[in-house]
Amino acid sequence: MIDLHSHTDASDGTDSPRELVDRARAAGLSALSITDHDTFAGYEQAREYAAGLGFVLLCGIELSTKFHGKTVHVLAYFPQGESSAAFRAWVREQQEYRRDRNIRLIARLNEVGVAITLAEVEALGRTMTGRPHFARVLMDKGYVRTTQEAFDAYLAEEGRAFVQREEVALAEALDRVRASAGIAVMAHPIRLGKRKAAEEEALVAEAVELGLAGLEVIHSDHTAADVERYRGYAARYGLIETGGSDYHGGNKPDIDLGTGRRGNVAVPDEFFVRLQGYRPEVQR
Questions:
Q1: Which residues contact 113 (CB under 8 A, 6 or more apart)?
Q2: pLDDT in tens, 179-219
């Protein structure tokens, strides 16, 4: 079994990159992809360590994009090697958008009476500070009791301090990934938020026209019925299938690496084999 969706403390997970590799080996996984948000830092820290252990580590990243006014996450994989220098420069631009959001979020929190500083949050977030790090500071300072409460009260779209982050259009992200010889996969499509399957499929079909290459059919948020539906989409639109737990360590304690939420994730090795052999320029 493999896991193609995981996070380290280089973004919003709690395990160090080396700890995550050790956890993957202990879980009996044959391959892992570190897909931190908007950064390759976790992968880069784990790369040589994994190689020294003879463990297969796939270069990946998770990008936040905008599609029909909603946030859609894209997993980008680079099975033939590292991403291009141009792609990495573009990722650094996305990191600046994230930091700008964080500055505005601190200001908004201060306006509603929450006395925290960006330095306090960045001390936790380090290379890639996100809202889970804000939640941790809110908990540590007694404003909330749980991460969920922090999001509900302050950080989510309905929260008192929410600020919108500037996100790149889905079409641009897909173009950037493809130009860097990467494979762009829509993450956890259940979060498209469509109650009707026809509406959901229409969005997937439109994304395919924009250059989407794959679909994360297996995920901790997906039921067995969801997995069957997404495998149907993948078959109809010629998409490569991927899957992963979306492991975040202590920030999502109900999700285990490799097995997801209460054992609902089991990603076969063949998904990795297909990723390695996939050539978008040939199959499109």
A1: none
A2: 999 999 999 999 999 989 999 999 999 999 999 999 999 99
Measured between alpha carbons, how far is residue 20 from residues 33, 49, 66, 99, 150 in Å? 10, 11, 29, 25, 26
First to last CA, the chain: 28
Q: Is the pLDDT of residue 283 over 50?
A: no
Q: Which amino acid is at 8?
A: T
What is the C-alpha to C-alpha distance for residues 250 and 267, in angstroms, rounded to an integer?
Answer: 22
Rg for the chain, CA atoms, rounded: 18
pLDDT band at 25 (very low <50, low <70, confident <90, very high): very high
Provide the Cα torsion 80, 85, 63, 35; round to 10°.
50
Per-residue pLDDT, 281: 57
Measured CA to CA, the distance from residue 27 to residue 8 in angstroms comes to: 16
DSSP collapsed to 3 states, the chain: CEEEEECCCCCCCCCCHHHHHHHHHHCCCCEEEECCECCCHHHHHHHHHHHHHCCEEEEEEEEEEEECCEEEEEEEECCCCCCCHHHHHHHHHHHHHHHHHHHHHHHHHHHCCCCCCHHHHHHHHCCCCCHHHHHHHHHHCCCCCCHHHHHHHHHCCCCCCCCCCCCEEHHHHHHHHHHCCCEEEECCHHHHCCCCHHHHHHHHHHHHHHCCCEEEEEECCCCHHHHHHHHHHHHHHCCEEEEECCECHHHCCCCECCCECCCCCCECHHHHHHHHHCCHHHHC
The predicted pLDDT at position 235 comes to 98
Give the global pTM.
Answer: 0.88
